[in-house]
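Fold this sequence, please.
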Amino acid sequence: MTQFNVDQCPNCRSHIAPGLLVCPGCKALVYRDRLQAIATEASAAEERRDFPAALKLWREALQLLPPGSGQFLTIHQKLEKLRPNVDSRALEEAEHDRKIPKPLIAMGAFGLVLWKFKFILVFLATKAKVLFLGLTKAQTFLTMFLSFGVYWAAWGWKFALGLVLSIYIHEMGHVFALQRLGIQASVPTFIPGLGALIRLKQYPSGPVEDARVGLAGPIWGLFAALACAVVYTLTGWASWGAIAKVGAWINLFNLMPFVPLDGGRGFRSLTRVQKWIAVAVIALMWIISHEGLLVLILLIAIFNAFSKSQAASPDHRALIEYCGLMVVLTGLSMMPVTVE
């Protein structure tokens, strides 16, 4: 929680003990002035369509309000209304990136190459910079190096390096989603043999936000596995193929619809009908692949679909992401790898 030094009530000057949000004397909000400043800053962020900044500010306001109060509930509802704007803004940016300027169109193929190069640079300047964020933090780098040493001793340095980087990319997918939603969290901490974890300093406002954050990890992990698969296909280097298969399997495991795993967080935003659609996709992929892990995922998904806890409204994006991940990751796990 964000901490401010407030010793006296700004209204009646009563002494305020640490942690209090409401004055025991006059019942006024202890952080009234700060809340007003946050509201002004957040409204300005909304006007300039900087929705991640607005979400971050409103979440800070929640920490300064008594849970269950009228103001708390009002801001919570505002977060629910603002969240879809993050997705729509991303679509607008993507649509803008697809519009090739007329001078480049006139240059023909060479202009198209320049535009594609520009797109790569934009990617490196936005999403890619998130990948380097964790490496600048001692906590992430040192625990990552420790895990690398453990895996090196077990399987050799090439596989160990690829595995650690795959796990890192998966975790930074969560970090990227958290940043877009304005949720404060720690950088990844690696635990040898168990992967890595991120500690949330704030929490998603509902199942839909939780699904966005949860499924972002496997999505980024999928792209890491696909990159390794492409390198293996082009070069025939067995280590890259092994990393692709293991990375796919790890991300597939994370799709298990059981909280706190990523799949459980994704399932929380699905209605009963959507869960049964996901069950059908899992069953189909098991029939095709005969992957034993899918049996466990399928049984938990069926139990989840029968449970009383169901989303009130459908989350089509979460369903598409979950089923798409299930299909592609299962396909990658089936990739034959020739070990020399």
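The first strand starts at residue 189 and ends at 191. The radius of gyration is 23 Å.
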